[in-house]
Amino acid sequence: MSAREEQVRSLIAQDAADWFVASGAGLTANERDDFATWLKASPVHVEEYLALEVIGRELRAACEASQYSIDEILARGLHEQDTAVRPFWRRLVEGLRTPSPRWQTVAVATAALGVVSLGLLVLWNLRPIAHVSTPAAVTALHFETRHGEQQTHRLADNSILHLNTDTAVSVRYSDNERLVVLTSGEAEFEVAHAPERPFRVFAGRAEIVDLGTRFDVRLKDKSTLVTVAEGRIAVGLSASAETGMPNQGHTRQLVQVDAGQQLTVADGEWPATPVAVDAQRTTSWLHRQIMFENEPLERVASEFNRYAQKPIEITTPALRNLQVSGVFSTDNTAAFIAFLRNLQGVQVEVMPTRIRVSQDQE
Predict the structure, then answer these.
(1) 277-334 pLDDT, tens digit each
(2) What interhelical angle do 3-25 and 43-65 show, nearest 10?
(3) What pLDDT sits at residue 29?
(4) Of 15-19, 148-152, 258-262, 273-277, where does mean pLDDT reach its minimum?
(5) Cα Rg for the chain, rounded, in angstroms?
(6) Please, what sign has the CA dihedral across residues 47, 48, 49, 50?
(7) Rounded Cα gap, residues 349 and 347, in angstroms
(8) Would you say 202 and 183 are in contact if contact means Cβ atoms under 8 Å apart?
(9) How far apart are CA 95 and CA 246, in angstroms?
(10) What are phi and psi of 308, to 5 degrees?
(11) Is the pLDDT assigned to residue 70 strictly greater than 60?
């Protein structure tokens, strides 16, 4: 599992623990609707929550049937050999299915201690940025797109979230704040006006504060590109590259970005200066298109590879800087191949696993 996948899975596990604790205390009708929305957002949400439910159902009986003291159980648990790399809750559930009743008791009791500890940590250490005191005060969602896939989601406040290919976001709404963390890919935000509930996005080292607008955020290499299509935003440098979150009390210098401007946020390059861009071109992906005007072929191919099932590989270095202009459909690889073949001196070979572009030797 990659570092990004581990990070995403950790966020989902935390959300599942929130809902598990809140469900035990009883949910209101609105909270049940929020819970159902969270479950429907991804099969992974269901998997993580059901794992907790299984542990909870078996907990009391297993602990009552235990012949061992807590110290002995912990000692035996520490000597358990389990070197396979699997998601945390799935490993606990598999432990419940072990045929040996003796070690099943140990596994369940150890899992129980983990669940109780996790629940206490979640309640005690909720991030200050979320401004919530109980799990039930939070509406937590997670969305992901696969390679080439796009999604659109209307959020609880009527804001609209558009996700581009290979994108992952977590959304946490409280009574005082709307918070989105972009962990990979690209997303466009159409934010519903609610000045009493600030809308903030964290992506890489960038913190974006909405001031009533429509804007695009993309994680690219080690930088964050923020483009404003309508309205204006304020962008700051977050304190943590790993979490994308500011430290509590961290003083930030905010840069205002207006419609038709783009800001690049990277380590060691702050404060940044907005530059004028064609926002329509930047957000053409919303219409399953990519637009270029006198751009290097290497960059065009790189953009196409974000969607294509077969990556385009330029094997002749001299062709990488060939200037290309046009509007291309991200779903029509055949049309793009035909376009390349019409370029003078360019040869295209479609192979089983990739598309190779080279200089014509004739």
Answers:
(1) 999 999 999 999 999 999 999 999 999 999 999 999 999 999 999 999 999 999 998 9
(2) 60
(3) 78
(4) 15-19
(5) 25
(6) positive
(7) 7
(8) no
(9) 38
(10) -70, 145
(11) no
Residue 289: strand, helix, or coil:
strand
- 96, exposed or middle or buried, with CB in 10 Å at 0-12, 13-18, 19+? middle
Output the six-digit token pair for 319. 């062709």
What is the arithmetic mean of pLDDT over 84-99?
48
Nearest C-alpha neighbor of 3 from the set 91, 81, 85, 126: 85
pTM: 0.63
Contact 267, 239 (CB under 8 A): no
320 near 297, Cβ under 8 Å?
A: yes
Do 167 and 147 touch, CB atoms closer than 8 A? no
Count H helices, E strands: the chain?
Answer: 9, 19
Residue ranges of alpha helices (H) inside the chain are: 3-25, 29-41, 43-65, 70-78, 88-96, 101-124, 279-282, 297-304, 333-341
CA distance 225 to 269: 13
Q: Which residue has the tokens 């001299």?
A: 318
- Six-digit token pair at 86? 């699997």
User: For 125-154, what is the mean pLDDT?
Assistant: 67
Give the C-alpha separation, 268 to 158, whole Å.
36
pLDDT tens-digit series, residues 166-184: 999 999 998 888 999 999 9
Tell me the sheet residues that pair with 223. Answer: 220
User: 3-state DSSP: the chain helix, strand, coil percent, rounded to 5?
Assistant: 35, 30, 35
- The residue type found at 66 is S
User: In the numeric block, which tokens belong to residue 282?
Assistant: 């930047």
- As given in the structure block, the two tokens for residue 291 are 């637009």
The predicted-structure confidence for 36-61, as pLDDT tens digits, reads as follows 777 776 777 777 777 777 676 666 55
Inform me whether the pLDDT recorded for 83 exceeds 60.
Answer: no
C-alpha 255/C-alpha 29 separation (Å) is 41
β-pairing, 160-163 vs 151-154, is antiparallel
